Amino acid sequence: MYLLQAGFNGGDILFQLIMFILLLGIPAALLFLFLALMKKRKSRLDRIEKKLDSLLKEKESRR
């Protein structure tokens, strides 16, 4: 009965909305950061592999 009569304050609604956005936003930001770092790491490893392959070809051509 009292729940139907309770009025919501504008500040309470705003606070709940901000907390909900943070609850969803922080894990999403961490996931995005993790995926971006993994992509950067993969491209770095690909460049190293390409350089190593070229050095090995160069070494074999000298023999």
TrEMBL record:
UniProt keywords, alphabetically: Membrane, Transmembrane, Transmembrane helix
Looking at the UniProt entry, the stretches that span the membrane are: 13-37
Protein name per Swiss-Prot or TrEMBL: DUF4083 domain-containing protein
Q: Which organism is it from?
A: Bacillus salacetis
**Organism classification, top ranks?**
Bacteria, Bacillati, Bacillota, Bacilli, Bacillales
